[in-house]
Amino acid sequence: MKKEYSLAHLTAISTTPLELAKIAANCGYDYVSIRQIYMGVANEVPVNLAEDKKMYQEIKALFKDTGLKLLDIELARILDGVDFTKYEEAFEIGKSLGAKHVLSSIWTDNKEYGIEKFAELCDLAKKYDLTVELEAVPIAGVKSFAEVADILRTIKKDNAGLMMDTHHFNRANDSVELLKTFPSEWFRYAQICDAPLAPPERDKMIEIMRGGRDYLGEGLIDVASILNAMPVVPYSIELPNSRKVEEYGYEGYARKCLETAKKYCDTFVTGR
């Protein structure tokens, strides 16, 4: 099965969706993953494509001219008091540009509320023919993929799936054997990277997560075992590394990320 790759942010949240799409097209990616629901973190440059009509049309033209496609939009977080109004606007824009998926994560510690709101999010996304992939994040409310599986089995939504992020899977200490028990239909795309040994300090872990990940095969995560425990799906390269972006520039770094990912996956990954 042909492996396809998407460009997600590479500590490039300061780029606009159009700039990231151009980089992806220039480097030979199959897809791009764009942020239309912003997190309010440092260096973000929020661009609302529903309001910036010029950029919207330029992205649409770029997709048509290059064959690049939009894989997903992010990040639909479930927070205490979450308001889905802006999420729906992002879903509408994403769908109009050909998006297939929405990335989500649960950040509330109120388990019942998180499950209820995630189910509502799936219903909202279904209106736009979008699936919602739930990601476990080690610093969020839902930290493990075992928890994600429990939620998916609880809500029983046919457009709900599991977002495999190899960094987060490793940090959650989830087992590959558990991963093998999950239904194939839960997997629609995955975020891939490598990383150094997990530090015990929370601040250091966050520092690596947001700006210190490694090329595939150059860290200490057994990425192949993770990917071989699930079907082959499009791989979204989420490999933020501040130092390497400074060294190579966004486009040079994005190209290197793709080259190393293809080499690694072609050599070691067959999927289940």
Provide structural commentary:
There is one protein chain. The protein is an alpha/beta fold and 272 residues long. 43% of the residues lie in helices and 15% in strands. The chain has helices at 17-27, 53-66, 85-96, 111-126, 145-155, 166-171, 176-180, 202-211, 223-227, 242-268, and strands spanning 5-7, 31-35, 69-78, 101-106, 131-135, 160-165, 190-192, 235-237. The protein has an eight-stranded parallel β-barrel with strand order 1-2-3-4-5-6-7-8, surrounded by five helices. InterPro entries: IolE/XylAMocC-like, Xyl_isomerase-like_sf, Xyl_isomerase-like_TIM-brl. GO terms for molecular function: isomerase activity. Residues 23-240 form the Xylose isomerase-like TIM barrel domain. This is Sugar phosphate isomerase/epimerase.
Indicate the topology.
Layout: E1 5-7, H1 17-27, E2 31-35, H2 53-66, E3 69-78, H3 85-96, E4 101-106, H4 111-126, E5 131-135, H5 145-155, E6 160-165, H6 166-171, H7 176-180, E7 190-192, H8 202-211, H9 223-227, E8 235-237, H10 242-268
Parallel strand pairs: 1-2, 1-8, 2-3, 3-4, 4-5, 5-6, 6-7, 7-8
Protein name: Sugar phosphate isomerase/epimerase
Domain Xylose isomerase-like TIM barrel: 23-240
InterPro entries: IolE/XylAMocC-like, Xyl_isomerase-like_sf, Xyl_isomerase-like_TIM-brl
Mean pLDDT: 94
Number of helical stretches of at least 4 residues: 10
Write down the oligomeric state: single chain
Q: Spell the H/E element sequence.
A: EHEHEHEHEHEHHEHHEH
Estimate the strand proportion.
15-25%
Please give the alpha-carbon distance between the first and last residues: 11 Å
Shape: globular
**Residue share in helices?**
40-55%
The neighbouring-strand order within the major sheet is 1-2-3-4-5-6-7-8
C-alpha Rg (nearest Å): 17 Å
Strand segment tally: 8
Major sheet size, sense and barrel closure: 8 strands, parallel, barrel
Structural class estimated from helices and strands: alpha/beta
Pfam families: AP_endonuc_2
Domain Xylose isomerase-like TIM barrel: 23-240
Protein name: Sugar phosphate isomerase/epimerase
GO molecular function, one term: isomerase activity
